[in-house]
Amino acid sequence: MNRWYIIFKRINFIKDLNDVGAYFTSKPFLASVVVICVMMLLLVIIKKYLIKKVAYTTKHDEQHQNTFIGMLFNLLQYIVILVAIVLVMQVNGVNVTSIVAGLGLVSVIAGLALQDALKDIIMGFNLIVDDYFAVGDVVRITGVDGQTIEGKV
Fold first, then answer.
1. Which residues contact 66 (CB under 8 A, 6 or more apart)?
2. Rounded to whole angstroms, how far apart are CA atoms 33 and 35?
3. Would you tell me how many other CB atoms lie within 10 Å of the CB of residue 117?
4. pLDDT in tens, 42-71
5. Which residues contact 87 (CB under 8 A, 6 or more apart)?
6. DSSP per residue over 62-104, as a string?
7. Helix (H) or strand (E) holding 48
8. CA–CA dist 125, 151 (Å, integer)
9. Among 54, 52, 85, which Cα is nearest to 71's?
10. Distance CA 90, CA 112 (A)
11. What is the DSSP string of 21-40?
12. What distance lies between CA 45 and its chain's CA centroid?
C-alpha cells in the first residue's frame, strides 16, 4: 500500500474529502450559489436603474452623473454584499439573529467612535452631490493643482 494513503487514512483525511464532496452537492451549497447569483444580478439591475434614473432626473453633464452613480453604487454594493453574506450564513444553518444584533451594536459604537471621520465622508458626499467638482475636473487645494480621478465613498 502507498505510504501517503496510510497516513491520510490514519488522520481520516479521505473521509473528510468525501464530506466535502457531499457538501458541494447538498441543498445548502446550491442555495448559497443561488443567493450569490441573485445578489450579483440585483447589483447589475440596481446599476442600470441608477444610470437611467440619474440621467433622467438630473440636468448635469456626464462627468457629474458618473461621479454620483459611482459613489452611490459603491455604497449600495457594500450593503448588498453584507446582506448576501448574512443570507448565505443563514442558509448554511448559522443562527444570524445574534450576528445581526451584533452588527447593529457595532455600527452604533463605530458611529460614535468615528464621528469626525464619518462627518468628513458625509461632507465629501455633499461636495459631489452639490456639484462642487466631479471626476475629470482640475482642482486647487492649498496651492497644489490636480485632476480628480475618481470619487468613492
1. 134, 135
2. 5
3. 10
4. 988 988 887 787 766 655 667 777 777 777
5. 35, 39
6. HHHHHHHHHHHHHHHHHHHHHHHHHHHHHHTT---HHHHHHHH
7. helix 27-57
8. 9
9. 54
10. 29
11. HHHHTSHHHHHHHHHHHHHH
12. 15
- What is the distance between the alpha carbons of residues 73 and 67, in angstroms, rounded to a whole number? 10
Cβ-Cβ contacts under 8 Å for 11 (sequence gap 6 or more): none
- C-beta of residue 136 within 8 angstroms of C-beta of residue 147: yes
This prediction's pTM: 0.60
Q: Could you tell me which residue, 5 or 61, shows the higher pLDDT?
A: 61
Which residue type occupies 141? I
- What is d(CA 89, CA 32) in angstroms, rounded to the nearest whole number? 8
| Angular region, 76: left φ>0, alpha ψ -120 to 50, beta rest | alpha
- The position carrying cell 455600527 is 107
Q: Coil, strand, or helix at residue 49?
A: helix
- Report phi then psi at 148, rounded to 5: -75, 135
Looking at residue 59, the DSSP 8-state letter turns out to be: -
Share of the chain above pLDDT 90, in %: 5
Q: What is d(CA 79, CA 89) in angstroms, rounded to the nearest whole number? A: 16
Among candidates 119, 121, 137, 145, which has minimal Cα distance to 60?
137
